[in-house]
């Protein structure tokens, strides 16, 4: 099995070395599609022998499909710059590469993603195990979705890996909430463009359910203070999503 490790970047100087160190020796090629970095992203990419290409930003789905089209091997590992392979996941990928028979029957592999948040690995709540297909046959898959939270659509059977994909997500609480606001707006814009709206109670009911699901049903409370903050931020983001959607609908209805 030969693998193209593919990622999209924009000013990832602080994250990229950690990401590439975790996968460079497993990669038969590294393909990076950049949308206009002004820091040291290109220099770091080339230090690791990556192929560095440019594409003006066309959205998450467009960028990720574009970088897949640049891969030259049948198998692709799609990774974000703020992620890295854990030692356990590295060992599993190494075994797949060494024995082609292990992958004959499958089009892709699911793996759990574990977030490092405020110095703690989060292993409960809505954030874990967050199983994603990241290693897959390139010709059998493509990304789809709206302006945010793209999803991989794949044809064929999937198998599961046990090792974690580590995610170094947020610098601090301010960074966390800033991204919540960004994603909430992008989600609302996507839904609005699809003609969707929401009732007056939607921000409250959806937010309450999101908090209860993550903190109680999925035992987010076991992650200590971080678990509480994650559940609270998730609920706030959901409430904001539906408030923004309602505001967009109201603005369209009034003609403003």
Describe the structure.
By secondary structure, this protein is an alpha/beta fold. It folds into two domains: 3-168, Spore Coat Polysaccharide Biosynthesis Protein SpsA, Chain A (Alpha-Beta Complex), CATH 3.90.550.10; 173-254. Helices cover 41% and strands 22% of the residues. It contains seven helices and 13 strands. The strands form three sheets. Strands 3-2-1-4-9-6-12 form a seven-stranded mixed beta sheet, with helices on both faces. Strand 1 (3-9), helix 1 and strand 2 (29-34) form a beta-alpha-beta unit. The protein is globular, with a radius of gyration of 19 Å.
Features:
4-stranded mixed sheet, 7-stranded mixed sheet, 256 residues, 41% helix, Spore Coat Polysaccharide Biosynthesis Protein SpsA, Chain A
The geometry reads as globular
Q: What is the typical, i.e. mean, pLDDT? A: 95
Structural category is: alpha/beta
Query: How far from one another are the termini?
Result: 56 Å
> Could you name the CATH homologous superfamily of the largest domain?
Spore Coat Polysaccharide Biosynthesis Protein SpsA, Chain A
Instruction: Count the DSSP helices.
Output: 7
The amount of beta strand, in percent, is 15-25%
What gyration radius follows from the Cα positions, in whole Å? 19 Å
CATH A-level architecture of the largest domain:
Alpha-Beta Complex
Low-confidence parts = none
Domain unit count: 2
What level of helicity do the residues show? 40-55%
The string of secondary-structure elements, in order, is: EHEHEHEEHEEEEEEEEHHH
CATH class of the largest domain: Alpha Beta
Count every beta strand, where a strand is a DSSP E run of 2 or more residues: 13
Here the CATH topology of the largest domain equals Spore Coat Polysaccharide Biosynthesis Protein SpsA, Chain A
What multimeric state do the chains show? single chain
Main β sheet profile: 7 strands, mixed
């Amino acid at each position: 099995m030969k693998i193209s490790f593919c990622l999209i970047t924009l000013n990832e100087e602080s994250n990229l070395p950690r990401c590439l160190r975790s996968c460079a020796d497993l990669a038969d090629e590294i393909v990076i599609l950049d949308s206009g970095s002004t820091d040291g992203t290109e220099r770091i990419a080339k230090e690791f022998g990556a192929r560095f290409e440019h594409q003006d930003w066309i959205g998450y789905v467009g960028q990720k499909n574009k970088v897949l089209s640049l891969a030259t091997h049948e198998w692709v590992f799609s990774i974000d710059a703020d992620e890295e392979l854990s030692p356990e996941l590295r060992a599993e990928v190494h075994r797949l590469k060494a024995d082609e028979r292990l992958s004959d029957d499958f089009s892709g592999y699911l793996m759990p993603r574990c977030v490092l948040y405020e110095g703690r690995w989060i292993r409960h709540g809505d954030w874990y195990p967050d199983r994603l297909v990241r290693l897959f046959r390139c010709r059998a898959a493509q990304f789809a979705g709206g302006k945010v939270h793209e999803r991989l659509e794949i044809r064929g059977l999937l198998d599961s890996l046990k090792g974690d994909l580590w995610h170094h997500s947020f610098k601090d609480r301010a960074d966390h909430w800033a991204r919540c606001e960004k994603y909430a707006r992008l989600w609302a814009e996507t839904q609005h463009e699809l003609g969707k709206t929401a009732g007056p109670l939607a921000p409250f009911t959806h937010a309450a359910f999101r908090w209860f699901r993550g903190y109680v049903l999925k035992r987010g409370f076991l992650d200590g203070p971080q678990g509480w903050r994650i559940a609270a931020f998730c609920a706030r983001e959901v409430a904001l999503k539906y408030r923004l959607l309602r505001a967009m609908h109201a603005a369209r209805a009034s003609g403003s």
